[in-house]
């Protein structure tokens, strides 16, 4: 994949570049030090993924959603620390990953692989925080969305696809388990997003958690 590195800190950009360049099949094609530049450069170099420092965001959901929309690139966020709210905000905006900076050497290669396969990756220490936060968001602006209403909107294979996405499975894994092609899985995902009025897989996964359509075994 072609990767753009975005961080206001030159040292941070250098660290990410070093890790990406060690990953087979990954290539750093540019750097940026603000959001506007990240979007512009990503379009110019046709980046497949943007590794972005979360400190550059003003509103995680809005900023990530705008960046994904403008570049059509997978966005992987990095942070010194994180909370369930921060992770949810980024993923619901369409991010394909949320990583702790002190785990980048281990987690960034995995996140790039997941993003390339159409999935998402969150640093393990943040996963339980994210799940807890989503469970607590039952009474909010989207409280009217229930597991039953999602089930009513989706066909059986679409429901199964959404459950598997929420479980962290990649496009290839879902295709193998469901005995269909990856193109068919992508078609299911497109229909899920359209029916639920969502913009990205991240939003679909977040909604599956919030509505309790998907209940992880933790």
UniProtKB/TrEMBL annotation:
It comes from Micromonospora echinofusca. Keywords: DNA-binding, Transcription, Transcription regulation. The keyword Transcription applies. CDD domains: LuxR_C_like (cd06170). Residues 2-116 form the Response regulatory domain. This is Two component transcriptional regulator, LuxR family. The keyword Cytoplasm does not apply. Residues 147-212 form the HTH luxR-type domain. It comes from the Bacteria.
């Amino acid at each position: 994949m072609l990767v753009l590195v975005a961080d206001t800190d030159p040292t941070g950009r250098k660290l990410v570049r070093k890790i990406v360049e060690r990953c087979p099949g990954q290539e750093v094609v540019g750097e940026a030090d603000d959001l506007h530049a990240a979007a512009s450069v990503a379009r110019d170099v046709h980046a497949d993924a943007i590794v972005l420092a979360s400190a550059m965001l003003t509103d995680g959901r809005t900023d990530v959603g705008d960046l994904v929309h403008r570049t059509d690139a997978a966005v992987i966020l990095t942070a010194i620390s994180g909370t369930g709210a921060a992770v949810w905000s980024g993923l619901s905006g369409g991010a394909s990953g949320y990583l702790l900076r002190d785990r980048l050497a281990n987690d960034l290669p995995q996140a790039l692989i997941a993003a390339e396969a159409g999935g998402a990756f969150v640093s393990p220490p943040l996963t339980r925080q994210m799940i807890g936060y989503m469970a607590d968001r039952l009474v909010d602006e989207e409280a009217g969305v229930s597991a039953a209403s999602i089930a009513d909107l989706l066909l059986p294979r679409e429901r199964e696809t959404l459950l598997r996405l929420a479980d962290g499975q990649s496009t290839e894994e879902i295709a193998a388990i469901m005995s269909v092609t990856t193109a068919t899985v992508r078609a299911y995902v497109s229909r899920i997003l359209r029916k639920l009025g969502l913009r990205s897989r991240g939003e679909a996964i977040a909604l599956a958690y919030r509505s309790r359509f998907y209940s992880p075994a933790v």
